[in-house]
Structure formats: C-alpha cells, structure tokens
Amino acid sequence: MTLDERKKRILESIIRDYVETAEPVGSRAMVKKHDLKISAATVRNEMADLEDMGYLEQPHTSAGRIPSESGFRYYVDCMMEKEPPGEREYALLQQLFEQNIEDWEQVILGIAHFLSQMTRYASFVIVPAIKFTEFRSLQLFPLDKGKALLLLVCDMGVIMHRIISIPELISSQDLQAITGMFNQAFRGKRLEEVKRSDLQLIRESLSQRRKIIDNALEAIDNLLQNSRDEKVMVSGALNILNEPEFKDMEKLKRILNVLEEDDSLRQIIPGELGEAVDIKIGRENPLEEIKEMSLVVAGYKSFGELGKIGVIGPVRMEYWKAVGTVETVRDIIEDYLKGLG
Amino acid sequence: MTLDERKKRILESIIRDYVETAEPVGSRAMVKKHDLKISAATVRNEMADLEDMGYLEQPHTSAGRIPSESGFRYYVDCMMEKEPPGEREYALLQQLFEQNIEDWEQVILGIAHFLSQMTRYASFVIVPAIKFTEFRSLQLFPLDKGKALLLLVCDMGVIMHRIISIPELISSQDLQAITGMFNQAFRGKRLEEVKRSDLQLIRESLSQRRKIIDNALEAIDNLLQNSRDEKVMVSGALNILNEPEFKDMEKLKRILNVLEEDDSLRQIIPGELGEAVDIKIGRENPLEEIKEMSLVVAGYKSFGELGKIGVIGPVRMEYWKAVGTVETVRDIIEDYLKGLG
DNA sequence: ATTAGCACTCAATAGAGGAGAGTGCTAACA
DNA sequence: TGTTAGCACTCTCCTCTATTGAGTGCTAAT
C-alpha cells in the first residue's frame, strides 16, 4: 500500500503538527502553516481518502484529523528520516564513557539519563545478566570473629564479594587449601556453568572442612543467583507528566506504576531484538497497561548477551528523534564494549 | 494554651473526618457520625471558638471547617496517641532483617518499602556515610593485562574494591611490599582520617614504585569520596498520586521532582534530630516546594553517625499511624545495629 | 449554657445559548 | 478529471444563569 507524493506530504504535515500540539489538525490551519500549494478543500479530500485507508481518524465529526496508529506505523516504516543527536549532545555522550570508565554502573545510569533528557520521554536500560563471564579466581580472607571475606574475581572486570562465617580456629594453611580447591574446580568455567551440581561435587570431596565449605558454597550460590538477574534502570519516568494525554490520574498511575516496577517493565519490552531499532506503537504492545504508549527499543551485544535500551512515551511521539537517539546511543555502547573485550 | 475536654473531642473528630475524607467537616454531619451528645448548634459555637484560636479554618463562608496547620500541630503535640503497626506487620518487619542479614542494601530497601506500604505515604531512608568505620586491611591482586584489583576491607563488614593499572612486569614481592606499606600506614585509622595528606606521605616515601602507588592512591581516594556520601533511598513516591490535594499537575510535578532528586530530598530533611520523632507540618518546612506537605522523621544511630528514616505526605496526614510506624521501625533498626557493633 | 429555628451564603451542578473551528457536499472552473 | 470556492451543517467548548443544598451565624426560647 503506497501513497502518492501529495498524500505523503499531507500525512507527514498532520503527524508533525499533531505531535507538536496534541490537537486534531484541521485542513485550513494546516495549509496555512505548512504553506502547501493547494487549497484547504483539496486537503480535505485527501484527508478523507487517508481516513478511508485507515491512516487518519476523527475524534468527532467536526474536529480536525489525528494520525491513527496505522498512520504512525506507515510514517515510521515508509517515510521517516531519523534524526540523530547533534554534535554537542554526541560529545556529551562520549564524555560520559571517558569519565566513568571504571564504574560501569555510573555509565549505565548516565546513559539512561541522557536518553530521557534528549528525548523528553521515559528511558530504560537493561543490562544483561553476567552469567557468561569466566571465573578467574576465588579468595578467602580471614576477618575477625570467625568471619571471612569471600572474593570472586571474573574477567571483564566483574568482581563480587560476600562475608561468610568460618570456624574461629582455622589455620591459614587450611584456608589456602580450601581456596585452592575451589580454584581448581572453577577455573575457566563460565559463571552459568557453575551450577549447584558442581558445588555439590566439591562439598563431597572435602568433607573434613564441611562447615566452612558449606558457607562458602552458599555465598557463591547466592552471588550467582544475584548476577543471573539482569539489571533494569529507568530514568525520566516523570516526563510523562508533561504529556497532555496522561492528564487523567488513573491512567497516569497505571503507567508510572509499570515504569517503577522492574518486573512489569521487563514484561513490556520485546524479548528478541534484531539489528534495527524496534518500534512498537500503541496497541502493538502486548501489555494492556501501555496500549496507549509507544516503545522504541534497540538491543546491544554485551559479552555475548543481549542488553536493551530504549524510550517509552506517548503514541504521539517524535519517532524521528527517539529512533535517532536510541540508535546512536546503542552504537556508542557497542563500540565501547567492543573496546573492552 | 489548653483546650477543655469538649473542644478537644470536637477538634479530634474534625481531624479524623478530614483526614479520612479530605472534605471540610460540617457541624450537623459530624454530630451524627460521631454520636456526640450535643447538638449541631453547640458544635457550631465551639467551632467558632476553635476558629478564633486558629485551630480551624473555613475554605469559604458556607463550607464546613478544616483543621488548620496549627490545629494539626496542637493535635500532634497535646492529644495524639501513636498507633504502632500491628502484630503481623511487626513480624514482617523483623523477618526482613533476619532474611537479608548479609545484604545491608537489601535491608535498607526493604525498610523504605515497608514504611511506604504501611503508611501509604512516600518514605525515605538516609544511610549515613561510613567514614567512621575503621580501616582493616588493603590487598592488591594481580589480574591480567597489567591490571590489579585493589581491595579495601574495613570493619563493620564494609568492603570496597576498584580495579587499577599496574606495570605489566611487576614481581609479586614488589606488590606485597607495596601492600604492606599501605597497611602499615592506614592500620586502625578511621576512613575519614585517611586524607589526601596521608596519601601524599606514602607517595613520597616510596618513590621507586611511583606509578602503581599513584594509581592505588587515586583509586582509594575515589573510593573514600564515594563512601563519604550518605545514601538516600526513596520508596512509594507514587503514593501521593492518590491524595486529592495533589490532583493539580503542576503541584504534583514539583513534588515528585523533589522526591526523585536525592539532593533536593536531603535539603528537605532536618539536619539535627533528637530522640523523639520529629514532625514538620506544612509551612513549618523550610523548603518552598513542600510547604503543603508534612514530614515525619526519626534519627537512628549507625556506627556513631546519624541516619534518618521517615515519611512524607500531605498535611492531611494520619499522623498517629505515621509516627507509630516510623518510631517502631527506628527502634528495630537501632536494635539491629546494636547487635552488629 | 444549650438548643431549635431561620435567614443567609456560597460552591457545585446543570442547562441554555452562542461562538468557532472544522467538515462534507455541491457546483463551478481550468 | 482534478481542483477550488461556497455554504450549510455538526459538534465541542465556553460563558452565563438559575437552582440546589450543605453549612453557617444569629436570635430567641429553654
């Protein structure tokens, strides 16, 4: 279904006006504003056609037209030109990486912040679980009062620690022996491979130091459990307060609640993502709560896993800007991660 | 300024009704509801008195009365009976501590969550900086490619780490020597005492390994910087969406923004706190943005430092419940921390 | 000191009328 | 045949005007 040039121009004008003002667009006002070289009556005819095709709709008989979700979809698929961030913003983003190279957490936060600042929509960053990093070494440090620090070092700069209990009167040789045992067993394995079954194996082979090993194993299991979860970060959720379509309290509450809860958010975002930026408009979203919102998501490869970034805003979204920004940020992230590996 | 029994009863009835319904309370309806043994006319007279005293006010001539901020203040100071959480909730709270003993972060989050769930207001927890913990030991582990893990262990279970660069060809003896140096210099000191000047001292005394020491010092400095900041956690900010007084978008935005930004929040909360729970009602708050809200805060001692927990809600607050809950949670936290020290 | 009675006030609600923006249709035009 | 001007019509939004009703303050009686 392809539109002739004039219909396209009209559709685009309506979309741009509507996205800007959130008001239905009338034929006369539009002709004036966009300086189209045709009369309002002609535009009305074209609008009627576009409405028949399902790309426009009328809130009521005597109002202007607004783009339907199919209208936005057509625009996004066949007409849209992405609008990446400008020089200055781009520089700002890169700076983010340079400044906080040591602190990946900070970088992630910065990315989310940048996305929401740039687009004025809510943004999210999902960092995949780190189960694919490789185990490097394990250390036990005695602390005081029968406690020890268990330190788990992996590659990719992943380091985790826990405090465990140990018998008060254990020799440092014993401790070293146990440490060696663990290292032997785990060396070179991926974290996801270190399953309970492996842990069980060690437990059996070293029965004389059962207590301390049990504790250590439990701590490790716990750490792995944690690292198996992906991390979700949201920024700028309050931006939706500015959108007139959400002036209704109930709607607002529902949406903010979804954005606040990591689990609901995870459900919203598509599981699989291709190379291209993925766009879900309104009812294309599977979840009831956000059937009035649009989602712009991109996936990034992080140590072989799939991470996701994106923005979430009203259907009346500046898709050109959102897509341009999300895509740019994704590319920068991937470059950065490539540099690390 | 003390009120006679009847005036107190009337004031309390008005406060209870108003807190529940958010509507001005009229004489007739009140008499009926609370089954007071006096006539509406009498109540009207008393109300007029209470209004003269400044404890009540009228939105307009022909509306009922609502409690003024002074009215709430009088109630809170002279009449209120705290209402601590019930058995079940109390048990829930204690469970929180038992389950997550290893992960203080989790506990804090749980506390904030509990507070906001119980009271239905926004809650916050401020965890003081850990500058008063004592340095215990420092370790350097070589990782690959000229990198090492710097591990800083303090008492109270505080552990921090950073990755630093080291020369690729350094012997493990050298590394140990350097580690020993650091440990010597820092042992037993409080983190806040480890100032840049100390770091400078070490730097000079070991000039031959300048590069690695510089890196280590920078990392330590960085870590200390981080740990010097108190942590702020907010939960249930969206609860204010339910309060009818904030149905105005602009007001809502201002308040949510304050709750979202750690720094603004810090400014809101009183710096010094005594034993008792502190209550700030409406305009008693110094900051413009929350002059329409009330604050219930309690301080807790954490390793000699002052932490804070509390809730923030509309002036029309269930103070009895808020105070009871905050106080109970504070006590439990202090008990728990005492057990740790 | 308390209460019943009554006139008065004022916000909230509903309805009516008018203005304005926009449409669809028809007929004229290039 | 595509485009345009003209016009009647539609429908929301705004304003203006009762009307209602909860609540008060005052007065006089108990």
CATH topology description of the largest domain in chain A: Beta-Lactamase
The count of β-strands of chain A is: 10
Fraction of residues in H or I helices of chain A = 40-55%
The SSE order of chain A reads HHHEEHHHEEEEHHHEHHEEEH
Largest sheet of chain A: 5 strands, antiparallel
How does CATH name the architecture of the largest domain in chain A? 2-Layer Sandwich
- How many separate helices of chain A? 12
Oligomer: homodimer
Largest interface: A-B, 28 and 27 residues
The proportion of strand residues of chain A reads: 15-25%
Supply the helix-strand structural class of chain A: alpha+beta
Please state the overall shape of chain A, judged from the principal axes of the Cα atoms.
elongated
On the 0 to 100 scale, the average pLDDT of chain A is 87
Lateral strand order in the biggest sheet of chain A? 7-3-10-9-8
Query: In CATH, what is the homologous superfamily of the largest domain in chain A?
Result: GAF domain
Give an overview of the whole structure.
The structure is a homodimer of 341-residue chains. Chain A folds into 3 domains: 5-79, Orthogonal Bundle (Arc Repressor Mutant, subunit A), CATH 1.10.10.10; 87-128 and 230-340, Beta-Lactamase, CATH 3.30.450.40; 135-228, 2-Layer Sandwich (Enolase-like, domain 1), CATH 3.30.390. In chain A, 48% of the residues lie in helices and 18% in strands. Chain A has helices at residues 5-21, 27-34, 40-53, 69-79, 87-99, 104-119, 172-186, 196-205, 210-228, 249-260, 262-268, 319-340; strands at 56-57, 66-67, 122-127, 135-142, 147-154, 159-165, 231-235, 278-281, 293-302, 305-314. The first copy, chain A, has a 5-stranded antiparallel beta sheet with strand order 7-3-10-9-8, sandwiched between helices. In chain A, strands 4-5-6 form a 3-stranded antiparallel beta sheet, with helices on one face. In chain A, strands 1-2 form a two-stranded antiparallel sheet. In chain A, helix 1 (5-21) packs across helix 4, helix 2 packs across helix 3 (40-53) and helix 10 crosses helix 11 (262-268). Chain A is elongated. The model of chain A has no long low-confidence stretch (mean pLDDT 87). The interface between A and B is medium-sized, with 28 and 27 residues. Chain A binds a DNA duplex (30 and 30 nucleotides) through residues 24, 26-29, 38-42, 44-45, 47-48, 58-64.
